[in-house]
Design a protein that fits this description.
Blueprint lengths: L11 E5 L3 H13 L3 E5 L2 H10 L4 E5 L7 H11 L4 E6 L16 E4 L4 H13 L1
Parallel strand pairs: 1-2, 1-3, 3-4, 4-5
Length: 127
Amino acid sequence: MRTSPNPAAQTTVFVVDDEPQLLELAEAILSAEGWLVRTFRDPEVALAEFATGRPVVVITDYAMGRMTGMDLIRECRRLNPRQKLVLVSGTVDEHVFSDAPVKPDRFLSKPYQIHELTDIVRALAAA
């Protein structure tokens, strides 16, 4: 039983991925840690929601069809230059953004361990 309030309980994390099973997994992992999680299969819908309700962290897959995770990261940073962003991918590595003018705060390779995801979100939210 926790005796002190969980700061994560009052913060929202956006997770953007076109794979429903991966969204469900990330939501289960982060919700169990007390985060309020909003999931999006469409990065354009996530971007529209981002414009009105700022999450503490945005986690986005790289390969999603019409808009890549890097496109979403660029647009989020345009709207909020201090936004904490995580790029997740099972198809590319950190080289995909090495020369990009806008970079994510962290990169996470799929498949990832539960503690890797929770540690990254916790660290970025505290920064």
